[in-house]
Hints:
- A hairpin with a 4-residue loop joins strand 4 and strand 5 (65-68).
- 12% of the residues lie in helices and 29% in strands.
- By secondary structure, the chain is of the alpha+beta class.
Amino acid sequence: MNTEKVTARRLTAEEISGLGLQDGIFVSAGMEGLPLECYAPAFLTEPGKNFEGGAFVARTVFGEEIHVLPGNAEEAGIWIADKAGEEIEVLQSAGVLLNLALFVPGGNKESLESLYSAARDAFGAGVVQRWSEEVVAVPDIKVDLYEEPARARKNTNSQNRDRRALDIYPTRVRFLEPSEGWKFVVEPHQEIVDDTPTI
């Protein structure tokens, strides 16, 4: 777990009421019931003046929502960077979680293991982890992916169509999103044949 020492002080409810959405704060780094003895960078979910009694709500840079009662001495409270404060441990937010869907042509157990080993060699054995693995056989075919307006005009023969991607595997299509106001049209891949005579 990578942490850094930050000099900060704990805020009172009055001080928190003066904070806005842009003010960087630190709250408990505990997530999904996992208590951590350190803090995470965060921001209030709405200006402090909008909270009337009860708990303040902050969202950490890791996407966790934390409800804090600043007057409760048993809670970690809300902290702000201050050179005159005390040192606290803050989780670094440099990591990125990648959810990967990999297509391995002719994939078998050996090729998946070598792929996993290469990733561990590149990023470090303690960094690359398999959270879940689903091995699914997919057809080795390609499709043409187009975009069309979601609401096309009636009685028009010519479709306003844009080619979004060529030679794409159908399993990849479900990870893409159409442009706003457009929908995807998937067709069997057609090789483009140039009939222009050559001299």
